[in-house]
Design a protein that fits this description.
The complex is a heterodimer of chains A (about 425) and B (about 100). By secondary structure, chain A is of the alpha/beta class. Chain A has helices at about 5-15, 20-40, 45-50, 55-65, 80-100, 100-110, 120-135, 135-145, 205-210, and strands at about 165-170, 175-180, 185-190, 195-200, 210-220, 220-230, 245-250, 255-260, 265-270, 275-280, 285-290, 290-300, 305-310, 315-320, 325-330, 330-335, 340-345, 350-355, 360-365, 370-375, 380-385, 390-395, 395-400, 405-410, 415-420. Chain A contains 9 helices and 25 strands. In chain A, strand 5 (about 210-220) and strand 6 (about 220-230) form a beta hairpin. In chain B, helix 1 (about 5-20) crosses helix 4 (about 75-100). Chain B is of the alpha+beta class and about 100 residues long. Chain B starts with a helix and ends in a 5-residue tail after the last helix. Chains A and B meet through helix 2 and helix 4 of A and helix 2, helix 3, strand 2 and strand 3 of B.
Chain lengths: ~425, ~100
């Protein structure tokens, strides 16, 4: 088993436990992998040494007593899942920072401000939502409009003997939601007015049986959901490792809203234009290239976020473990990670907000005539420049350069900060 | 390994290694797993329990390998606990030695 599979299985197994417990264990394991790999071990060796997840879970239960929550599958709303992830990250950043120095504590407060309510993770939201969809499959079927065009190939007549494939599409949807329990999602622009979703499960026969793909339209929204089947209490298929599933999506121009989420796998979006875009991952990188949106919100947990050449009024990129690279002409950009570098390249931005705990922050602001900066680093160097105004090697604080027209907030615990207006 | 036995033993291993200096997770788990057959993952639970009981504290520090490392520091309470646990352990091992070595009446 490789790291991604192991971490995904761990994530799944930790679901019944409290948010803070889950996050702490995930981050301990991430760190363990980083150190193990750096010392020359392979992912498989490290997985072997870490030992069976079942063992960890049974000890964790002993440790926590009856900490298990009862799931109410109906209580989770799909649309809330993404918001909750943001809160989860903000809460986690806060709790991390709380353990560091005083400077970090200050930062933690500013990160976690306004996050009081319990923040549940994205993956749980997705699966719960998907579970709901699965359980209510027949109910949904009645609601589906005449334009329902999904087709499902049965296992016996698949075109490819080794891949389980299914397709769905719509020519009158204006919004799309694609979610995978464990899938890579690849999104490109559609050449005609058809929205298409292709599901390909490259796993073994059993793995193919263990996953289901549902594609349906409800109102203006086309849904494509790939998820693990639920088999009640026995849940035999839970023990299987995850197969490779690819969801290939084509989106027509100017959809009102697009949502792409996966728990384990990468997401790549290229050349898409839409109103509101929401992209979420748990384990795996997220890359968005040459797109145009009104707003873009990206959440990841373990993996980098790259947003390159994106026109959007607003770009929000958040992850827990991984770097963030954003090149955009957005008016407002927010980038938050706990462990990783942040690089921002913007044009005509009016407000930038970047925060990390461990990592440097580098901002290059094109078309910028002045900066109002609020910057803080506990252990790194801070350099600010805008035209003739230059502040080098300074300590944390507030600074005004030029006409102060662009508001910049940047904070890190360990790492340098460089902000350059030009 | 028996669960209760393992719990005490691993706790003492970790606390003792932390008595010298602050260490990060991988350093502790790698050292211990090199000497005994355990799932290193469960060591993180030992560390978590010690932290929850305020026997160790943690802080983050940047590392050259990527993500920040969580360092574990033995608290005063933890130091005292380690000394007590060590005494108990030594007595226990001595008693076991005598019995399995046939030195009983």
């Amino acid at each position: 088993m490789n790291k991604q599979e192991y971490m995904y299985n761990l994530f799944e197994a930790l679901r019944p436990f409290d948010e803070d417990v889950r996050n702490e264990i995930i981050s301990d394991y991430e760190e363990h992998f980083a150190d193990g790999l750096a010392s020359g071990k392979t992912e498989e060796q490290i997985v072997e040494e870490l030992g069976p997840i079942d063992e960890l879970i049974s000890e964790l239960k002993d440790l926590k007593g009856k900490n298990k929550k009862n799931f109410d599958f109906d209580s989770m709303d799909i649309s809330k899942a993404a918001d909750n992830l943001v809160k989860g990250i903000a809460g986690l950043v806060g709790s991390f920072a709380g353990t560091v120095t005083k400077g970090a504590e200050k930062m933690g407060e500013s990160f976690s401000g306004g996050v009081d309510e319990f923040a549940d993770s994205f993956a749980k939201g997705v699966t719960n939502a998907a579970e709901k969809v699965y359980n209510k499959g027949s109910e949904f079927a009645k609601d589906i409009s005449d334009s329902y065009k999904a087709t499902r190939n049965s296992d016996s007549d698949t075109m490819d003997a080794t891949t389980d494939e299914a397709n769905g599409g719509s020519d009158n949807a204006t919004e799309i939601v694609v979610e995978g329990d464990c899938a890579n999602i690849y999104v490109t622009a559609s050449r005609d007015n058809m929205a298409r979703i292709n599901y390909a499960n490259h796993g073994t026969a059993n793995q193919q049986l263990a996953y289901a793909f549902e594609c349906y339209q409800k109102g203006n929204v086309l849904y494509g959901i790939a998820k693990r089947k639920s088999f009640g209490i026995t849940n035999f298929f839970k023990t299987l490792t995850s197969p490779r599933i690819d969801l290939t999506v084509e989106v027509p121009r100017d959809f009102k809203a697009v949502t792409f989420k996966t728990a384990s796998g990468e997401i790549k979006i290229t050349g898409v234009s839409a109103g509101k875009a929401v992209v979420g991952g748990v384990s795996g990188g997220i890359e968005i290239n040459s797109c145009g949106f009104e707003t873009l919100k990206v959440n990841n947990i373990s993996g980098h976020v790259t947003v390159d050449g994106v026109n959007s009024e607003e770009v929000v990129a958040e992850t827990i473990s991984g770097g963030i690279n954003v090149a955009t002409a957005a008016d407002f950009v927010r980038a938050v990670t706990t462990s990783g570098r942040i690089n921002l390249l913007t044009r005509n931005a009016s407000k930038l907000d970047a925060a990390t705990v461990s990592g440097s922050i580098d901002m290059k602001l094109d078309g910028c005539s002045g900066i109002s900066a609020n910057v803080s680093s506990v252990s790194g160097r801070i350099d600010l420049a805008c035209g003739e105004s230059v502040v080098r090697g300074t300590k944390s604080g507030k600074f005004t350069l030029g006409n102060g027209s662009t508001t910049v907030k940047a904070s890190t615990v360990s790492g340098s900060i460089s902000v350059e207006g030009r | 390994m028996n669960a209760q036995f393992k719990k005490g033993a691993l706790e003492l291993c970790v606390l003792t290694m932390l008595a010298d200096k602050d260490r990060y997770g991988y350093e502790l788990t790698d050292e211990i797993s090199a000497r005994m057959e355990i799932a290193t993952g469960t060591l993180y639970l030992v560390l978590k329990r010690l932290k929850d009981d305020n026997l160790v504290t943690t802080y983050l520090q940047e590392s050259e390998n990527g993500p920040a490392r969580k360092y574990y520091h033995l608290s005063d309470e933890g130091r005292k606990y380690q000394e007590d646990l060590k005494k108990e352990w030594v007595q226990f091992v001595k008693a076991m030695d005598e019995i399995i070595g046939g030195r009983y009446e």
